[in-house]
């Protein structure tokens, strides 16, 4: 078990193809993933984001089935979206409320928690992400690294079963990347992590890795082995 997650029903793709316009972005992919922290690597256009979007319920499979923590992505998208939080590379696109505290609280909209309970949860989460001093600041005035921590804070406060992060450190400098990585890879995070990244050092810190090429998974297993396979393919 990872927190409350049932390992027997983590991420399952069976014969999944995703056609986007004229492109076959994923080509007959079968994967059963139970690890806590999964890195997804591969060249530009290899299908990583399409895979992440399918698992997150943002893209539909053209063929095959996608199940995430027991939920069939084609049949119950609403439940899937409640189970999953997604963080993208562009932190600006993820801010929805004027201040930092309001933006985090927005993630708890629709829950049955009282105002006082929400305020307490937001205060705890801001503290965890080192954002307490910025609570009343305009979210738009934060640095890129602070914005990405804010996005992660909002994603995690929902207590998702699965956190999908699609190139979350792409626009960050080394120091901010390290801060975001430490939060992402926290070993007791309580959720499964699916991390799409071009940062191979980050991928190496996960529990398992997948290598995509041309819409297919061409290597899967221990991150060091999969990264070595990727490096070899780049030299070929
Ligand atoms: N909305 C779309 N319409 C048509 N083709 C698309 C669409 N989105 C992605 N594709 C194509 O699907 C393929 C896989 O794209 P995807 O974004 O999944 O790759 P990626 O591995 O995440 O790439 P990157 O590392 O550049 O983000 C590419 O050939 C891409 O051009």
Automatic annotation (TrEMBL):
The keyword Transport applies. One of its GO terms (molecular function) is ATP hydrolysis activity. GO terms for cellular component: ATP-binding cassette (ABC) transporter complex. It comes from the Bacteria. Belongs to the ABC transporter superfamily. Residues 11-236 form the ABC transporter domain. Gene3D superfamilies: P-loop containing nucleotide triphosphate hydrolases. This is Biotin transport system ATP-binding protein. Keywords: ATP-binding, Nucleotide-binding, Transport. The keyword Nucleotide-binding applies.
